[in-house]
Amino acid sequence: MEDEFYNLVVKGNDLKTYVRRFQELAVLCPNMVPNSEKHMEAFIGGLPESLKEMLLLQNLRLWRKPPT
After folding, report:
1. Domain segments of the chain: what residues?
2. Do residues 52 and 10 touch, judged by C-beta distance below 8 A?
3. What's the CA gap between 8 and 25, in Å, rounded?
4. Residue 68: its pLDDT value, please?
5. HEC profile for the chain?
6. Contact status, residue 68 vs residue 38, Cβ threshold 8 Å
7. What is the pLDDT along the chain (68 residues), one digit of tens a residue?
8. Lesser CB count within 10 Å: N end or C end of the chain?
């Protein structure tokens, strides 16, 4: 099961199935994602490159946003 978790990726455009299976595996293999940072790294790692780039750009935008 840990191998499946480690190799889990989005197939095609089926993000819903990826999210559901990721959540199941995170519960079944808690040592694979011991904290929220590792949880996010593992989740993002299975996303297609286009989504990873979008998340990176969004994160950069948040860092550059002036405080209000």
Report:
1. 2-64
2. no
3. 10
4. 62
5. CHHHHHHCCCCCCCHHHHHHHHHHHHHHCHHHCCCHHHHHHHHHHCCCHHHHHHHHHHHHHHHHCCCC
6. no
7. 889 999 999 999 999 999 999 999 999 999 999 999 899 899 999 999 999 988 888 887 777 766 66
8. C
